[in-house]
């Protein structure tokens, strides 16, 4: 398996080998186990905002003609079940 997702381990060959792996022999993880972010030591975090027509409608904004790109603090990267911490203010 892959110990960590890094530029060296997330290659086409590594992902192809992972896709061929029989996952039925992997252990069941205790539901209380915290699953952390799938990336570590990120230097930059870039995102695309309002990239779906539905999201634009939900936020009462016009659908952008081009993708809206922005950066976020890497401290905002969290695991799938982690609480989202909102800053004061």
Automatic annotation (TrEMBL):
Keywords: Isomerase, Metal-binding. InterPro entries: FAH, Fumarylacetoacetase-like_C, Fumarylacetoacetase_C_sf. SUPFAM superfamilies: FAH. GO terms for molecular function: isomerase activity; metal ion binding. Residues 58-89 are annotated as: Disordered. It comes from the Bacteria. The keyword Metal-binding applies. The keyword Isomerase applies. Residues 45-89 form the Fumarylacetoacetase-like C-terminal domain. It holds the Pfam family FAA_hydrolase. GO terms for biological process: small molecule metabolic process. PANTHER family: FUMARYLACETOACETATE HYDROLASE DOMAIN-CONTAINING PROTEIN 2A, FUMARYLACETOACETATE HYDROLASE DOMAIN-CONTAINING PROTEIN 2A-RELATED. Belongs to the FAH family. This is 2-hydroxyhepta-2,4-diene-1,7-dioate isomerase.
């Amino acid at each position: 398996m892959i110990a960590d997702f890094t530029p060296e381990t997330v290659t086409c060959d590594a992902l192809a080998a992972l896709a061929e792996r029989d996952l039925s022999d992997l252990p069941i993880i205790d539901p209380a186990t915290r699953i952390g972010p799938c990336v570590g030591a990120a230097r930059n975090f870039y995102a695309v905002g309002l990239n779906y027509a539905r999201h634009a409608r939900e936020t009462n904004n016009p659908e952008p003609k081009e993708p809206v790109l922005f950066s976020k603090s890497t401290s905002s990267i969290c695991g799938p079940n982690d609480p989202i911490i909102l800053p004061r203010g």
